């Protein structure tokens, strides 16, 4: 499973590099992987009216630990547990690093 994820990540990075070489502006891989997270957690700007915590500017280690906790069912949250179990460690790290690098904006 880890080998397949690494192969998929390498393929995606290669596609992004090829697109950049052709003058196509591609979002960072972490942003692409976080696309589903943004629906509930927002990106730099939080989701209007949401009680779900925003992740922008949060330390990557904190996000990664929370995802490990959800995956191990050590944290409550039915939906987050299912989501967390669907990501490998490399994908979680990419998402966490992307969120950590975002400057939070006001709602």
Estimated structural class: mainly alpha
Cα separation of the termini? 39 Å
Radius of gyration: 15 Å
- Whole-number mean pLDDT: 84
Order of helices and strands: HHHHHH
Main beta sheet:
none
Return residue spans where pLDDT drops below 50 for at least 5 consecutive residues.
4-8
Continuous helix count: 6
SS strand fraction: under 5%
Query: Helix fraction?
Result: 55-70%
Which of globular, elongated, flat, extended, rod-shaped describes the shape? globular
Q: Based on DSSP secondary structure assignment, what is the total number of beta strands?
A: 0
Topology:
Layout: H1 2-21, H2 29-33, H3 35-41, H4 60-71, H5 78-85, H6 89-100
Helix pairs in contact: 4-5, 4-6
Structure notes:
With 107 residues, the protein is mainly alpha-helical. Helices cover 60% and strands 0% of the residues. The chain has six helices and no strands. Mean pLDDT is 84; it is low at 4-8.
Short description:
This protein is an all-alpha fold.
Task: Please describe the structure with a list of short key phrases separated by commas or semicolons.
single chain; mainly alpha; 6 helices
């Amino acid at each position: 499973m880890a080998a397949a994820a690494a192969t998929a990540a390498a393929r995606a990075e290669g596609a992004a590099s090829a697109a950049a070489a052709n003058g196509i502006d591609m979002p960072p891989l972490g942003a692409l992987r976080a696309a589903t997270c943004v629906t509930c957690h927002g990106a730099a700007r939080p989701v209007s009216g949401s009680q779900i915590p925003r992740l922008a500017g949060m330390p990557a280690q904190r996000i990664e630990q929370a995802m490990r906790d959800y995956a191990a069912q050590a944290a409550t949250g039915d939906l987050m547990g299912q989501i967390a179990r669907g990501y490998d460690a490399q994908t979680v790290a990419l998402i966490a690093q992307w969120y950590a690098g975002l400057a939070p904006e006001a709602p």
